[in-house]
Amino acid sequence: MPNIITDKEKIEEVLTRSVDRIYPTKQALEELLSSGKQIKVYVGIDPTADYVHLGHSTNYLVLERLWKLGHKIIVLVGDFTAMIGDPSDKTAARAPLTKEQVRDNLKSFKEQIGKILDFQDLENPVDFVYNSAWLSVLDFGKLVELASHFTVQQMLERDMFEKRLKDNKPLYVHEFFYPLLQGYDSVALEVDLEVGGTDQTFNMLAGRTLARRYLNREKFVLTTPLLVNPITNEKLMSKSAGTGIGLNESPENMFGKVMALPDESVLQVFRDCTRVSVDEIEQKKLRLERGENPRNVKLELAREVTALYHGASASAAAEHRWKQIFSEKKIPDVIPEVRVEKEKQLVDVLVEQQFTKSKTEARRLFGQGAVEFDETVVKDVSFVLDHEGILRVGKKVLVRVAIHN
Predict the structure, then answer these.
(1) Is residue 180 domain-shared with residue 264, that is, in the same domain?
(2) Residue 239 above 80 pLDDT?
(3) What values do phi and psi take at 160, rounded to 5?
(4) 370 shares its domain with 400
(5) Where does the record place the Tyrosine--tRNA ligase SYY-like C-terminal domain (predicted)?
(6) C-alpha to C-alpha distance for 60 and 319, rounded to whole angstroms
(7) How far apart are CA 132 and CA 20, in angstroms?
(8) Among 101, 113, 223, 228, who pairs with 97 as Cys (CB 3.0-4.6 Å)?
């Protein structure tokens, strides 16, 4: 078993950095972490898309800090719960996913999360598990038993359920199953602590209830803040909305997307999505308060985030590329993005995205040299998009092209 570190400063960082609330109390968890006992901690993620985004990285960075203290870390993929759909923060029921969709989505999850957590460590291995291992064999009698620990009134306390009832929108019975099953994950794994975003509070506390009933033990819950624009309160990362910065983005796309974040979100992203020290972040805050151009600090953020997932040299190359395109050509930081399939013909994209009215018009623009991809004029009508870049069509269209498989 690894040596358990009880350094007060390191524990304090775990308990404060990227932390919204701790249940039952911060003091109780601090006592547990100071006891020298190894605790078992997990984060769950549902493969509702084929990428893990920057907002999720907050949880894995919290796990990394706990792992460095010597604690047992589990990454749980909700391959079973993804087929039900998490109703958290949803104004309508999620469309259920098929087994095939779930399987396709999670193909590179371990690789993406492995850019933060070390799955190769042998001394204190990080486990990567799937909740279908126990949920797929759960019989109906057990499900009824789980449901008996909660009331309908408790379920209806969820903000989104209340809102949907008030707005006369459908609320389906199967949506009540989700917190029961996520809660049962805590029992199956016999964890001491669950980490997750504030939107998961209800589900994680359901696990706390079930841990008390079935394991006769306390399960701590640590909630982390969601990445939001502090002025508009709009989510910056959302898998269901198809927005955000995926950990599987190319270096160029990742760098450009960080630079497109609102200036006012930079300090939070530094705190919640990087390994930069709290003291260094405080110095950046002081620079901004003294009137320094936010773009300077945002460049440092883009450099840091891209290096975390692709290495320093790839980050430097992406920065050079970004400066060539956006600074020297005076292209605005924030431009629309279109996601297209890899190996798609550019002429088809122009029509599908309604950049041109027809293929005939598209071919005419190619012939006039009015189509440019990545600073290169494209005249070949059979040109295929095989990488991400900036697309210009005439004087009116300027978009970032993102490739998905």
Answers:
(1) no
(2) no
(3) -70, -35
(4) yes
(5) 333-389
(6) 25
(7) 30
(8) 101
Helices (H), 50-131: 54-68, 99-105, 109-113
Distance CA(36)–CA(7), nearest Å, equals 10
Q: Cα(295)–Cα(268) distance, rounded to whole angstroms?
A: 15
Query: Can you state the angle between helices 312-322 and 251-259, rounded to 10 degrees?
Result: 60
Query: How many Å apart are CA 101 and CA 47, to the nearest integer?
Result: 9
**239, part of any domain:** no
Q: Are residues 209 and 358 in the same domain?
A: no
Considering only CA atoms, which of 224, 221, 223, 225 is closest in space to residue 28?
Answer: 221
* CATH number of residue 384's parent domain: 3.10.290.10
Check residue 256 and give its pLDDT.
87
Picking from 327, 345, 363, the residue at the C-terminal end of a domain is 327
Kindly state whether residues 343 and 299 are assigned to the same domain.
no
Distance CA 28, CA 205 (A): 16
Closest by Cα among 344, 341, 351 to 382 = 344
Mean pLDDT of 244-255: 89
Is residue 183 within 8 A of residue 209, CB to CB? The reply is: yes
The Cα–Cα gap between 50 and 100 comes to 12
What does the longest C-alpha to C-alpha distance in the chain come to? 74
Both 85 and 128 in one domain: the answer is yes
- Which residues constitute the domain of residue 296? 251-327
pTM assigned to the model: 0.81
Q: Please give the tally of structural domains in the chain.
A: 3
